[in-house]
Amino acid sequence: MAVPGPGSSEQDIRDWLIGRLSVHVSRPVQELDATVPFTEYGLDSVAALHLYGDIEDAFGFSLDPTLAWEYPTVAELAGFLATESAGSLTH
Question: Which fold has domain 14-89?
């Protein structure tokens, strides 16, 4: 899966996030559901920081760690990232 970046579709971002989550919680992608909260997969604070580091590297902008509570699922976080990355194209 290609690393998404500015202008990527929400679905591309969602697929990429599922792949990254799979790595950080050591579970197969097929077992992960984009609508299940990160905490239900056992994503602890250390793994969350690594995941957010992956996102920051891919998108080139810093994220507030509290976003994990504001967007607690892959689907919600992908929607946020798609909006933010589209906005970065206009700045």
Answer: 1.10.1200
3-state helix, strand, coil in the chain (%, to 5): 65, 0, 35
Tell me how far apart the alpha carbons of residues 39 and 72 are, in angstroms, rounded to a whole number. Answer: 8
Residue 1 has pLDDT above 70, yes or no: no
Residue ranges covered by each domain of the chain: 14-89
Distance of CA 27 to the CA centre of its chain: 16
Neighbours of 21 (CB within 10 A): 24
pLDDT band at 78, cuts 50/70/90?
A: very high
Task: Note the residue count of the chain.
Answer: 91
d(CA 15, CA 29): 9
Residue 15 is classified by DSSP as H
- How large is the average pLDDT for residues 4-11? 80
Global confidence as pTM = 0.87
Q: What is the mean pLDDT of residues 14-22?
A: 95
